[in-house]
């Protein structure tokens, strides 16, 4: 009988390591196959909750937040690009010049979860921002991406314009902050086991198999 695995994937759509981590987790779950019955939920985390609507230049933002030099930022970008390529994700670094507020994207993801399309929307939002260089705070971009994964565009527009699910997103963010999640990706398995960071698929698979063995 398949072992139940509840996975809470805490992340932000503007986090490159979250895109890498999700691809790695997918590979691990593919290797495990039907040995596990997986129930995955994408939980909200804002790396830059105070980011203004117009966003900020990435280089400027990283210098202010981490004190990194242009050379260090270039090295980090190349590492991320290479790690992404290794798991099949395309980071088009030349198309992504700004970082944006992602609260509305998280509201839309909450709604997509109710519609059974959360993972598809999450993956599409990663692609929109990191591969296509689109603005994930722009409502028209979010509505377009929702439509691309088969969600109702008019309902998506209604959600975004109405402020629906804001309270639910804030509550979830506060819950995970309260429980010590201060960086992402944070992958929580069966509400007890934490894997932090964009780990390789082999690490995810090893941890999942150990949890499955203890559950048997």
TrEMBL record:
GO MF annotation list: oxidoreductase activity
Record-linked SUPFAM superfamilies: Thioredoxin-like (SSF52833)
Residue ranges constituting the DSBA-like thioredoxin domain according to the UniProt record: 7-208
Pfam families: DSBA
InterPro entries with a match to the protein in the record: DSBA-like_thioredoxin_dom, Thioredoxin-like_sf
PANTHER family hit by this protein: GLUTATHIONE S-TRANSFERASE KAPPA, THIOREDOXIN SUPERFAMILY PROTEIN
Protein name: Thioredoxin domain-containing protein
